[in-house]
Design goal:
The protein has one helix and two strands, in the order ββα. With about 100 residues, it is mainly alpha-helical. It has one domain (about 20-95).
Length: about 100
Amino acid sequence: MAWPLPNGTTAYYELRCVALTDRQVMLLVRNITTLRRAEAALRARLDDLSALRVLEAQLSDSIDYVACWMWASRSHASRAVRPPDSSPCSRAVTPA
């Protein structure tokens, strides 16, 4: 028998008549609950990781800008000069 899932796929289950004891049912419920909690925790950690990657990119851009500004202020304090490609400012704009 096919059952549609929330993500748009279809899961196939084989239906069988099985008599379960109360203990077996409680064990199944406990395991399903544990799996759902673990899934929710993993989703939360993935969201945190995504946010950290965004912050890492922003911090990297800020560090590049500061390095460029420091390089430009030391090397070319009196005039705006395009830095060489090997400088930390090769992809940033030097301050005037």
